[in-house]
Design goal:
34% helix; 6 strands; 175 residues; 6-stranded mixed β-sheet; alpha/beta
Length: 175
């Protein structure tokens, strides 16, 4: 009985230590610069009722709609000005070209699922197959399984780069 108890304790300890090491490695990766990330400064934060032309696609910040897009997974494009408002609140917006393979969309969906400050939607106007965007920050990607995506989410969801981290990402509009 003592040997069995020792074996159980050992297995649990190895599992817990492994999980903690994994979490610490992910946190360390999120603190390091992410290769390929572009940053944009001097972004305005005005709420406007009119369409906004952003120099990036999708927009990374600037004037935006007064109502934000609820964070979540969308299978149709969302209003860009409302999504930029979500970025102001600390959201990460994952976008993909609509012709992306179903398996890749499933990969992105699994990365966004159950994350309270992540938006996922198609964007027909972007040039890269996949993009990860946060306020003032964007990463162009060629593949949905790029290891930088979860690092980007961890680094920028609710980061202090956002003007209003912690503001609501629910209670807005659904697209």
């Amino acid at each position: 009985m003592g040997l069995l108890l020792t074996a159980i304790i050992t297995i649990v300890a190895i599992t817990v230590v492994g999980s903690l090491q994994e979490r610490n490695q992910a946190a360390d990766a999120a603190r390091k610069p992410i290769e390929g990330v572009q940053t944009f400064t001097g972004l305005s934060r005005n709420h406007v009722q009119t369409a906004v032309e952003y120099p990036q696609e999708p927009g990374v910040g600037g004037d935006h709609a007064p109502i934000w897009t609820n964070c979540g997974i969308y299978t149709t494009p969302v209003n860009e000005q409302s999504a930029v408002h979500s970025l102001e609140h600390g959201a990460v917006w994952l976008t993909y070209k609509p012709d992306l393979a179903a398996a890749d969309i499933a990969t992105l969906t699994s990365l966004a699922r159950d994350k309270p400050y992540v938006l996922l939607s198609p964007d027909a106007n972007q040039t890269a197959p996949v993009k990860a965007t946060a306020w003032g920050t964007q990463l162009e990607l060629t593949a949905a399984n790029d290891a930088r995506i979860p690092v980007f989410i961890r680094a920028y969801a609710q980061s202090k780069n956002a003007p209003e981290p912690g503001a609501a990402c629910t209670g807005g509009t659904n697209g």
